[in-house]
Design goal:
The chain has about 120 residues and is mostly beta strands. It is built from no helices and 11 strands. The strands form 2 sheets. Strands 2, 4, 5, 6, 9, 10 and 11 form a 7-stranded mixed sheet that branches. β4 and β5 form a beta hairpin. It is globular and about 45 Å long.
């Protein structure tokens, strides 16, 4: 059974930094694309950052330049480091891994989420 466990959320002051980590278990995930999403109250879930199985990263415009996503295939972990945090970064952050075959998503897993609150 595949499980994703996020950690690292919490209360951070504006301008601060944090590092979110996601540990995947129940399989080997080097062939999966991985990402972090977030959902703020009253808003739709949105992509924050993603990293492909080949290590190519992309970021939402709102976090580009102040965030770094990384993966460790040996440890089955995905990390997201965010700097210069803003109140609008407040949301529940979700880890996601997915595998695609011929362009179609064949496996798609989500973590339970970790709350990030940016406030003074």
């Amino acid at each position: 059974q595949v499980r994703l466990l996020e950690s690292g959320g919490g209360l951070v002051q504006p301008g601060g930094s944090l590092r979110l980590s996601c540990a995947a278990s129940g399989g080997a995930f080097s062939n999966y694309d991985m990402g972090w999403y977030r959902q703020a109250p009253g808003k739709q879930r949105e992509l924050v950052a993603a990293i492909t199985k080949r290590g190519s990263a992309n970021y939402a415009d709102s976090v580009r330049g102040r965030s770094t996503i990384s993966r460790d295939n040996a440890k089955n972990t995905i990390d997201l480091e965010m700097n210069s945090l803003k109140p609008e970064d407040t949301a529940v952050y979700y880890c996601n891994i997915k595998r695609t075959t011929w362009g179609a998503v064949t496996d798609d897993y989500w973590g339970q989420g970790t709350q990030v609150t940016v406030s003074s």
